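Task: complex structure prediction.
Instruction: return structure tokens for all chains below.
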Amino acid sequence: MSVINAVTCPICGCLCDDIEVTVVNNEVVKIKNGCAVCEAKYLGYNSEHRIRKPLMRKDGKLVPVSMDEAIHKAGEILANANYPILYGWSSTNCEAQRVGVELAEEVGGVLDNTAVVCHGPSLLGTQEVGIPTSTLGQIRHRADVIIYWGCDPWSAHPRHLERYTSFTEGRFEDSEWKSYVNKVKAAAGMKKLLSAQRREEPKKVHDTAAESVDFNKPPETLQKEGRKLIVVDVRKSMSAEMADYFIQIQPNKDYELMQAMRALVRDEELDVDQVAGVPVKYLREVVDLLVNCNFGVIFFGMGLTHSAGKFRNIEVAISLTRDLNMRTKFLIMPMRGHFNVSGANIVFAWQSGYPFGVDFSLGYPRYNPGETTSMDVLLRGESDAALVIASDPGATFPKRAVQNLVKHPLIVIDPHMNATAMLGDVVFPSAFVGIEVEGTAYRMDNVPLPLKKVVEPPEGVLSDEEILKKILREVRLIKSQKTKQKTEAA
Amino acid sequence: MQGKLKVTLLTGRTIEQGVGKEYGKSSPEYYEACSMVYMDADDMKKLGVKNDTHVLVTTPNGSVVLRAVKYPRSAIPGLIYIPYGPWANAIVSDATTSIGTPSFKGTPAEVESALGKPVLSMQALLKKEFGR
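Output:
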């Protein structure tokens, strides 16, 4: 038995690096410090859903083949394609991403990562107006007002609150955990009291409809001492339940609300009673709190990037942060999803100049989201082959995009039999990065962290990097043979 | 009781979906977590839909049968919430508004009761939508 300390968890953008993994006979048997998703991954990754041999579609069915046959087929598909898509990259290490850029340039394809269905608008917004941000360590030690806007860290980044914001013991700010526990206890007591009252007066019907009309309550809860947690969302998420104040806004109205807040930060008057379903008098109190805090931060998620306005929402969120910086100290950060999607953006930008949606079809990198992302190319039906690695567009892309993806040869590299692998033509099993392969990944604040190898991969299963290098070598070989044949014919 | 209800479709993460995807996309945990739709309690009453029964959600992009679950934490009148996954993506809008990102949230949809219609497994859904 061996216990490995300080393992970096390869799941979400938090990249928690304090996981303790117990290994017996090359098998993970226990996890300490991890969240529910972390435990599910480490204890459940090696299940029957794992792909153990390369597969190829023959007569409509995926059948096991040798690694050499699969590599040759994949090389042939990419070498013969005019406009292939190379998509995914967010759940693998930077080392594999680097080979991916080389492969995309070699085959003249579209190189894209999962940011296109995630924080692509955030990258566009940042390119428009810049971004005042910091590392998570600064926020952990100093932030006294924390806003989660259009994101639910409790569900998507379960330890974000505990490691980086409200529930962490910072050097200058205390953890709010105890106050939260007291609040939960008080709420449970109140619930008991109300139900006892209802039992005594059975005729009085509890009027839920009346409650639901006016969602937003006065922000009295923000009067408390210590760190304040505000959640803005269209529904009461788990994180909203934990917040000191929850602002429930109407769907697709984030832009209006933030513009209204910008006006209030600049001491302007609003001539309406409410914006996006939020009474202006409450909004004024919230803005007062923001202006008077010492160190505030806005974390934002898909609620902004997937709703109407998309990158304009991000642009105005950053502008709000900029306005607040005229009065106090305020930062903003996107809640990146996959553990190395930030790394994919960084590696692509470092190698090609652009973070996602990079088109190599003209022999040099071009970037124009709306034209050159994998989604645009698929929806226009222009690609003629695809390689998908460390992601699952079969389960994350809209139907029409997937329909066009499966019209042409599809190469999939993934450890699990996911939706895309089920739809693939050539499927490679790969080792789990951060469990069976080491490497580098970038946290959501763009801090690079080392991923550890805690167990050996199953026999014959290679890493993403090794598989990509083999495919690249095969593509080069096939292309050089083609050139040779052409010169001989001439 | 109404036959159909016009709603706004939201898709997003849930912790169960996160746990399910790590066990494997073909796992029963993932199926349970993603082939469902959260609805407002009053909206369910309007449609005559009970908790854990099936509904048909339709958008201009397609339709899918899902298990309706009452949203546990607050009223969300006029909203439905489907966790990310192939079921949600069978009906989400692919309008990219010229920046490459589809409109996964805040698009119009219709819900109706679908008693007796099955919720497809991932394999059956992929076969139906993509023929593989």
